[in-house]
Write a structure and sequence with these properties.
Elements: E1 31-34, H1 44-71, H2 78-107, E2 111-113, H3 114-147, H4 152-155, H5 158-176, H6 178-185, E3 193-194, H7 201-205, H8 213-246, H9 251-284, H10 290-315, H11 317-331
Helix pairs in contact: 1-2, 1-10, 2-3, 2-10, 3-5, 3-6, 3-8, 3-9, 6-8, 9-10, 10-11
């Protein structure tokens, strides 16, 4: 049974023919071999250009958000604290994947230690889950700000924000923790070649010469729980938000209130649309080439960390003004 997640992103289940790899007689290899983008090895250097560009934008953009929130007192509020949490999760998520992927593209450095592979697997799924949880926390912030604005500062105090952040971290850490431990307990004796650019969960456990249904079932249960719960909270929050917005007396106030949610809505779309597209191509695109599935899996991790700081930099007046002030002051 295959896993098909959104927020954990363990749904990139790649068709893999053992006849296309060199099988050897060994048990529990100490290293795995990552193929990068199978079938496009000759184009790895060219593929690395957009990948490296997106990674650079993600790093610079998210560090800029963290710097502005740290230095600007006017943005010391719940929404910006949650934005900092999202920036940190985006930095860890993209850094868990891209350096190794680029080393494959540039230096043909395909080997990865077994423990490092499991660690990468854990970080990818853990921080994807955290990012989804942070978006839920930001939805709650928008709900309180629009539906009960007078009590926003008393409801979302700094201790409450810290507790929400801790709950998001614990949820992601604990739910994903069994994944690498389950993968570690299997015996691997088929091959050590992973047809992927990173240690994707199912691509790894499918190499085991054992019944991996426990890993598959656990992954599916986590996916349905996390995705179902988060989508439910998104839906409930925005139903209440839209009801409150459309009950406002004038069109201008409605548009202004709706504009305060636009950045968050764009962040949700940036997070879920690439994952949904990757899931659909994996689920129904059986005739598509393997390299297309692997590319979509990588892009679904790269796009949100790159777009989030751009979305909030463009749509949030305080961040935009601070950036303009910084560059104008530097120019003078």
């Amino acid at each position: 049974m295959q896993e098909t997640p959104f927020c954990l992103r363990v749904g990139h289940l790649l068709p893999y023919s053992m006849s296309n790899s060199n099988t050897t007689d060994f048990t529990n290899p100490s290293t795995f071999i990552l193929l990068g983008i199978p079938g496009l090895e000759a184009a790895h250097v060219w593929i690395s250009i957009p990948f490296c560009t997106m990674y650079a934008i993600a790093i610079m953009g998210n560090f800029t958000v963290l710097f502005i929130v740290r230095m600007e007192p006017s943005v010391h509020g719940p929404m910006y604290y949650f934005l900092c949490m999202l920036a940190i999760s985006d930095l860890v998520l993209s850094t868990s994947i891209l350096p190794k992927t680029l080393s494959i593209f540039w230096f043909n450095s395909r080997e990865i230690d077994f423990n490092a592979c499991l660690t990468q697997m854990y970080f990818i799924h853990c921080f994807s889950t955290m990012a989804s949880g942070i978006l839920v926390a930001m939805a709650f912030d928008r709900y309180v700000a629009i539906c009960d604005p007078l009590r926003h500062s008393t409801i979302l105090t700094n201790p409450v924000v810290a507790k929400i952040g801790l709950a998001v971290v614990l949820r992601g850490s604990i739910l994903v923790l069994p994944t690498p431990f389950l993968a570690r307990r299997w015996t691997y004796c088929r091959t050590n070649i992973i047809p992927h650019a990173y240690c994707e969960h199912i691509a790894v456990v499918k190499l085991a010469c054992a019944d991996i249904h426990i890993s598959s079932y656990y992954g599916l249960s986590v996916v349905f729980f996390v995705t179902g719960l988060d989508v439910f909270f998104f839906t409930v929050s925005y139903i209440q938000i839209l009801r409150a917005i459309f009950s406002l007396p004038t069109k201008d106030t409605q548009l202004k209130s709706l504009g305060t949610c636009s950045s968050h809505l764009c962040a949700i779309l940036a997070f879920y649309i690439p994952a949904l597209f990757s899931f659909l191509t994996q689920r129904f695109g059986h005739n598509m080439a393997l390299h297309f599935h692997v590319l979509m899996a990588n892009v679904s991790f790269l796009v949100p960390p790159m777009l989030n700081p751009i979305i909030y930099g463009v749509r949030t007046r305080q961040i935009r003004d601070r950036l303009l002030h910084f560059f104008s002051h530097k120019g003078t």
